[in-house]
From TrEMBL:
Topology in the lipid bilayer: Multi-pass membrane protein
Sections of the chain in a coiled coil: none
One GO CC annotation: plasma membrane
Presence of the UniProt keyword Transmembrane in the record: yes
GO-annotated molecular function: transmembrane transporter activity
Keywords: Membrane, Transmembrane, Transmembrane helix, Transport
Major facilitator superfamily (MFS) profile domain sequence ranges: 236-424
Cellular localisation: Cell membrane
Protein's UniProt name: MFS transporter, UMF1 family
Amino acid sequence: MKRFSKEENSWIFYDWANSAYSIIISTAVFPLFYKAAAKNAGVSPSDSTAYLGYTVAIATFILAMLSPILGTIADYQGYKKKFFTFFFALGIIFTASLAFIPSDNWLLLLIFYTVAAIGSAGSNVFYDAFLTDVTTEERMNKVSSRGFGFGYIGSTIPFIISIAIIVLSQNGLIPLSTTFASKIAFMITAVWWGLFSIPLIKNVHQRYFIEREQKPVANSFRRLGKTLREISQYRALFLFLLAYFFYIDGVGTIITMSTAYGTDLGITATNLLIILFVTQVVAGPFAILYGRLAERFTGKKMLYVGICVYIIVCIYAYFLETTLDFWILAMLVASSQGGIQALSRAYFAKLIPKKNSNEFFGFYNIFGKFASILGPLLVGVTAQVTGDSSSGVFSLVILFIIGLTILAFVPEPKAGELDKKAII
């Protein structure tokens, strides 16, 4: 078995770095911190969950609008890492800044969270596009899955440290308030994210690119327009993006809203944090397993498996009553969330022309981000109308079914299919 190269390992370590943001800010500590701030301000549980959903929708809409444009420009030689670094720095700065916002100002918390989310997701657009630069098409499933697997495993370290500080403060074992302990967790996230991003910044370089030319912005818009006109001509790529639009919607929404949903069910903050920790531990090996199984059964068949698991998750969520039920739900999610994301990334990377990887991953991102607008809005509106968060999660099942149906019509990817017709 071929060992992972220095470039592959450096790329993989960014998942290790950025996943600290995903678990601590997106999923665990920040949602609980925000929910407590909103509750103290007199905001009802269903309304605060809805506002969080609307905030996620706003952040994803902004990034979705920017991604194809920035991605097209970033395909020029030397631009990819510059754009990556800008969004990476934006995310770290505003993540750290969350620690300095008054804990009773829930609206300002949401505003800073929005900017941090744009930084995190924006850096991931260019990080994903670097996959074509660091490895071969034959190894993409393995490398992409290892990235997600290491991300889940690595994120448990700052998560354990953060949760230990919070739990010790809650029990009066250290002279810190729970609020201050949560703010320390925000700082830990920023430091971890920055430290382990160094290998990518140092060792990963843009191998495939478009030569620089005069009027790069104007020519980038020209190329973007050509791509928009021609993308529907590539059946496999177009159908995959359409399927991805629907099924990744549910995946992202469940990840983002899970803690707020658990709070509404009456699960204690301590139990939620423990469940989320175990979820990360379980998700790591399963993400790597998905990559290995994809080599045997194909990535498409393993995507079928992941989507079916999420359909079961949505149905089961509607009937949740106890903490044990939430544990079972979390383990089902852990078994597939990393795998479905990793194989989707690798599946898409095999279809696109390498020198236009940023541009096409911009479209990949816009399909994913527009889907992430629909999902949180669907959960938010349903929760407010019914007064029941479980109904909001259940409503996501239709999106997985639509995605699964469309994916069935997607032809198996032919490595480098678009390289022969690369848009220049």
